[in-house]
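so my prof wants the structure for this chain in the C-alpha cells format not the other one, which i didnt know existed until like an hour ago. anyway here's the sequence
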Amino acid sequence: MGTTVQARLDSETQATLSRVAKRLGWSTSKVVREGIHLLDKSVEPSHPIQIIGLGEFDSGITDLASNKKHLAGFGRSSMPGGKTRRKAMGH
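here's what i got, hopefully its the right format
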C-alpha cells in the first residue's frame, strides 16, 4: 500500500468502524478504503458552471474582450449633435 492516513474518530464512529470490521472480517483499514470507494461512487461528479449562450456566437472579432477600441462608446446612447449620455439605470 501507499499512503498512511490518520483520522480522529469520536467514540461513536470508532465503535461503528470496529463493529463493521468485525462483522465483515476485515481490517479497519480495509473498511475505510472500501468506504472511500463507496462514497466516491455515490457522490455525483461536479459539473462546471455553464453560462447560457457562452461560446454560441462568433462575432468574428478575435480580440473583442481585450481591445479597448471595441468598447468605445459602450453603454452610452447617442444624442443629437454627436453628444453622448449615460443610460439611466433601470430604464
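also thought this was worth mentioning. The beta strands are 76-78, 84-86.
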